[in-house]
Write the structure tokens for this entry.
Amino acid sequence: MQLHGIHHLTAVSADARGNHAFYTGPMGMRLVKKTVNQDDTSAYHLFYADGEASPGTDLTFFDWPVERERRGAASVTRTGLRVAGEAALVWWAERRRGTA
């Protein structure tokens, strides 16, 4: 089997409502599925993707009541999402300025 990139990323959020507002609002992603964590059914598992739910566009979050992150060794502090090219970067810049 030949793998061509990341299938999806999973992160943790302590604020499911705020997480949903950000990813479906400013980020323009679609909530494609909301389930519960299979290992901890008290926590939501939120799945976001592009408008067509294309493979490789998934970003998922477990909703756990965790303390605010403290940066240090072995911490992930940024997540980068790839875009299709320069036109997409221009579109995102305009969207962030509120002109798109």
